[in-house]
Design a protein that fits this description.
By secondary structure, the chain is mainly β. It has a single domain, classed as Roll (Ubiquitin-like (UB roll)). Helix content is 7%, strand content 30%. The termini are far apart. 23% of the residues are buried. Bound molecules: FE2/S2 (inorganic) cluster. FE2/S2 (inorganic) cluster binds next to loops.
């Protein structure tokens, strides 16, 4: 569904849930995730519905992922770098009143 407009860009290697993939230098983690073919980045706490990057400008918070061991980072606001480890966020435990 998503493809890069310029596939001739320099690349870095990142992992998404342990799977190695190439990302263009200067693109966001969210862009790399969308280009990977599987845009899921987290699940909603209540229903577990999958979410994917939506606004790509730091507003919606649908792109929360674990990036280099730090949870709940906005993937659209982080630029990829060589060796970056990205993980989809696990479904959080339901809140109790
Ligand atoms: S995609 Fe909306 S905040 Fe990242």
């Amino acid at each position: 569904m998503f493809r890069r407009l310029h596939d001739n860009a320099a690349t870095v290697t990142i992992t998404i849930d342990g799977v190695t993939t190439k990302a263009a230098v200067g693109e966001s983690v969210a862009a790399a995730l969308l280009a990977s073919g599987d845009p899921r980045c987290r699940q909603t706490p209540v229903s577990g519905a999958p979410r994917a990057p939506y606004c790509l400008m730091g507003v919606c918070f649908d792109c929360l992922m674990e990036i280099d061991g730090e949870a709940s980072r906005q993937a659209c606001m982080v630029t990829v770098r060589e060796g970056m480890a990205v993980k989809r966020s696990p479904r959080p435990a339901p809140m109790t009143p």
